[in-house]
Amino acid sequence: MSDQYTFDDPRTRYPVIDPPKQQQDGTGLQSRMDPVPDLGESTYRGTGRLQGRKALVVGGDSGIGGATAIAFAREGADVVISYLGPEASDADHVLQQIEAAGVRGVGVQGDLTDPGFAADLVEKAVAELGGLDALAIVAGKQVTNKDVTTLPDEQFTSTFEINVFGLFRVVKAAVPHLPPGSTIVTTASLETWQASPERIDYASTKGAINTLSKGLAQQLAEKGIRVNTVAPAPTWTALQVSGGIPADEIPGYGSDTPIGRAAQPAELAPAYVFLTSPESSFVVGATLAVNGGTPTP
């Protein structure tokens, strides 16, 4: 594969990974994963689809967010990414890729569980970029728990705080700055429709994000702001090795998809680019499932 436009067999476009059992504390570092996820560093080719745009990628330090930030930059956008403090080394890697694309890249550290962070993040992005017209919200929390009777209230609450309330607060802070033509892309999941019994809190937030996004799409369309959602299926990111799935499920991760493998983050980035670019001008309130063939409604 030379770039994302190369014609080839999707089953073998990326390797069928069989990771060893591995777990990391906290939110995990992508750089310590085996194998390290592919963000498109060597393959994503920009064609000027976002030239001059001013983008904020929430959770842009690694995984799908990191791949999206790199793709945005290579398409010509200046990019601000947010990240948690322990993820600084992963964020530095993404920022290096952004700057190598010849655009402006800025990192902002903070925690979406802090009710004041969203407004601070947006204000910093606007100040650094001289405005804002593209928002991609990818940050999320996913922690496995197989028994509702042992699911801590704190975990249930913090999952909603990050995945749903964090999204709401960022959008609320950003909308006053977004001119007509701007875009917001949120991140749902295959679990929006196929909730895992091991991740009932996470699945619930993804259903909420999908519904919230469709309501926002209708409300903001009259302002000329388009809102859409990407719903990934199994994708190899730091979420999996930091408690997102049981350790026993890491070997062979994603092999049960119809295409026979997990996605790499690089394969999700083009969906965010499409929904952010003017070529999707009549796509509003859509949920784009990037799912390796797993049926969705």
* Cα end-to-end separation: 31 Å
Report the top-level CATH class. Answer: Alpha Beta
The strand order across the widest sheet is 3-2-1-4-5-6-7
CATH architecture grouping: 3-Layer(aba) Sandwich
Number of helices: 7
SSE ordering: EHEHEHEHEHEHHE
Number of domains: 1
How would you sum up this structure, described in words?
Strands 3-2-1-4-5-6-7 form a 7-stranded parallel sheet, with helices on both faces. Strand 2, helix 2 and strand 3 form a beta-alpha-beta unit. It has helices at residues 63-74, 88-100, 117-129, 153-174, 200-221, 238-244, 265-276, and strands at residues 54-58, 78-83, 105-109, 134-137, 183-187, 226-232, 287-290. It is 34% helix and 12% strand. Helix 1 (63-74) crosses helix 7, helix 3 (117-129) packs parallel to helix 4 and helix 4 (153-174) packs parallel to helix 5. It has 297 residues and is α/β, with parallel strands linked by helices. The protein has a single domain, classed as Rossmann fold (3-Layer(aba) Sandwich), CATH 3.40.50. The mean pLDDT is 96.
